[in-house]
Amino acid sequence: MGRLIAKTAGDLTYHVRKFTVGEIYEFFNKAVNAQTAEPDWVGNVLFEEVTIQDILTFSDLTTEQIQAMEPEVLETIIAAIKEENPHFFAACQRLEEAGKRLNQMLTTSNEGSDSSSGPSSPSSNSDTPV
């Protein structure tokens, strides 16, 4: 297991986990396998680059502690988590960008095949008698 690094946010002292390379692999594998679980919609969108589950994973904070905090306090904790795990979050960013590029290629490919494979409209065929 990676190191635990003591941090403070106001009066709260907590620990941030600094992941090892093996733990990063394990985290991504668990994320792929957990996609069938019911998502936490609020926890997934409350912060821009981190979910509530990420905060739980990368710190020793409990769900109850997190839910009792104001978002601004959690922003401080998120910054500490990202500071201690820059490679993990850079990998997440690269994966997100790759996913966007793949989605764009698939969208562009589907748009091109839709227009070339469908029947032409009557207004585009000038040989059609009126």
Beta strand %: 5-15%
Which radius of gyration do the C-alpha atoms yield? Answer: 23 Å
Number of domains: 1
Q: How much helicity do the residues have?
A: 55-70%
Shape: elongated
Distance linking N and C termini:
77 Å
Alpha-beta content class:
mainly alpha
Could you characterize what this model shows?
- Strand 1 and strand 2 form a beta hairpin.
- The chain starts with a strand and ends in a 13-residue tail after the last helix.
- The protein has one domain (3-107).
- Strands 1-2 form a two-stranded antiparallel ribbon.
- The chain has 130 residues and is mainly α.
- 58% of the residues lie in helices and 11% in strands.
- It is elongated and about 60 Å long.
Write the layout of secondary structure elements.
Blueprint: E1 3-9, E2 12-18, H1 21-33, H2 41-45, H3 52-58, H4 63-67, H5 71-84, H6 86-117
Antiparallel strand pairs: 1-2
Quick structural gist:
This protein is mainly α. About 60% of the residues lie in helices and about 10% in strands. It has a two-stranded antiparallel ribbon with strand order 1-2.
Which properties best describe this structure?
130 residues; mainly alpha; two-stranded antiparallel sheet; 6 helices; elongated
